[in-house]
Amino acid sequence: MQGNDRDGSNRDHCSQLLRFTSLSSKLLKRGNDPYTEASKMEIRWPNLPDELLEQISKRLGLKEFSALGAACTNFFRFYKHQKKLFMQSQPPFVILKTPHAKKSCSFFCLSARQTFRVVLPYFWGKAYVGFSGGYMIMTGGGLLWLVNPFTREQLHIPESPFSDYCISESDQAIHASITGSEDFVIVSISSWSSFLDVYHSRNSRWVNFAFNGGPWRVMDIVVFKGRIYAITDKAEIGVLSLTSPKLTLLELKSSPSLDPDSVKLVGSDDHLLVVSFIPLKNLEVYKIDFSGMEWVKLDTLGDQALFLGKYRKGSALRNPSRWGYNSNCVYYIGYAPPVCHIYSMENRLVSSIRVAAGDPAASKLCCIDWYHPHQFSSPNYVQDE
């Protein structure tokens, strides 16, 4: 009989906690204190065992789990302990916004066909330039603004390298933490500039990186195995040195001739990939073999899938079937209309998925990027060398 009472109590706590986490995300949007609401619900939060919290967390969405730590000290401890595992279990999302969004953006899960909205401190007057290290990166008003849309952690960087009057959809920035310290770097490329701009938090200033072997333009940048790589419009790959402002080109054999406007650098688990993709026209995937210092063309991705955007960075995920995605194919989003197209490695259109279908604002939404929650649990780390 006591066991039945305990099970009933756990069910009640589970129901109340699910209601609380949903409410917490709304309270946080309005700037209210979730702790006050928790005390009104008269639940003995500190006494809930981790086993029950773990069961409950499996029923939470990304936004609700992020609000879990606001309930009490016990929940915050559990949230910090489980955050990495939870984020790694989450599928990729498409980030959407309307052209005139002021404070919110939306996240759409292809596998679950679900959309949820996130309110940010501010969005109006800002241009989106990338998602990196768990941060949405935006520029505007002479500043660079980084915000985690779920934890609301923010970084404000003075003197944005991007021009407010000449911002392009292909402009981008990446964030990386310095191994063994609390410092970080931000690297940006702009369509109107021939420079790589690097901000180091230790010095709190931007530095223009020189190019050895130019003139040429950097088309994409990526963090891979503790180093920052760049690819030029001549399909040359270089590595950045953070201690001296220069980009050193690698001497690689079997370099292909690629369309510079379609090239993306993609860091997978094991390989640095170069992808040249024009829907229905051209799909070439290469890995950089560092042991032989050469380009190697790939005809298959194996158990990986590529997630690409027209203007944004690409990514590769292993075993995407755990979230209902297909392996050995390309998931591609344009800007508008909000549609995700799936292509085979032969560059044939397999299927198309309407993004945010059923959303009242769907006709006004634009796809701006992919969001991979696992990147929040495993931020980019680079060596300060």
Automatic annotation (TrEMBL):
Signal peptide: none annotated. Residues 107-333 form the KIB1-4 beta-propeller domain. SUPFAM superfamilies: Galactose oxidase, central domain. It holds the Pfam family Beta-prop_KIB1-4. This is F-box protein. It comes from Quillaja saponaria (Soap bark tree).
